[in-house]
Fold:
Amino acid sequence: MGTVLSISPATKKAMDADVSSDGTKVDKSLKRPSVFVSLSWKKLVASSAKKSAKKVTPNPNPNPPCPAVVARRNSENARKTQQTEERKQRAPIPVPVPTVPTRKTPPVQKPVGNPSVSTAAASPRRIVIQASTGELLRCLGDFVCRRCYKLKELNSGEVILWFRNIDRTLLLQGWQDQGFITPANVVFVYLLCEATLEESVASPAELQGAFQTCLYLAYSYMGNEISYPLKPFMMEANKDVFWETSLGIIERLSGKMLRLNADPHFFTEVFQELKSQRDCNDAGLDR
Structure:
């Protein structure tokens, strides 16, 4: 049949006992709980790892921008905000404007008869005068000779030469890019000379000094350059009275100088007066 083996508790306990190297008996039954704890700990760690793997948080932005791009965008947003605030500050504040009632203009009466004749009579008369630069220069020279009649040896060509020499010197030395002598500038010089030159001039050098002082103010006022040198205009004979004469001309003629450029009618009057100096000289100049 078979053999039946029965183990008593005492026998099982004795079998579980073992002997250590030093002769001490060790009970193997005491080690069983540690094996169970270690296995349970491994299972706990493995289950925790599976749960943490399932709860991984996804990355909302897999490709984050670089710091330079972020800084640039922040700067642009700040600048746009500032511009918006500035536009709001510069916006005009609406102010109510009072309304003015419109005045009724009286009806205009149409002229009776030929309308072309009436219009021509009402319009101002236009005077047209023409003269070349050379002609105006001769008129200017003749005027100076007429005014300073005590200088018997003076002629119109010498006065014109004083003017042309200064203009040529400024061109050659680079003080101006284009010549100053034009009809309008000659008229301006005549305005200054007519109010400055006196009949009591005693010598050609004194006359030349006074004439070139007028030229200096004309260049300074009408010239295309910012400033002009004094040397071509100032003479040794007139050095002591150069600035005194200049200040006197400015004090007496500032109003007329401004009016000559602003008022066409006044310019036409001075233009005609200068042009008539040639006729007066030809009519009779007692030398």
About this structure: The first strand starts at residue 17 and ends at 19. The mean pLDDT is 74. The two ends are 185 Å apart (CA to CA).
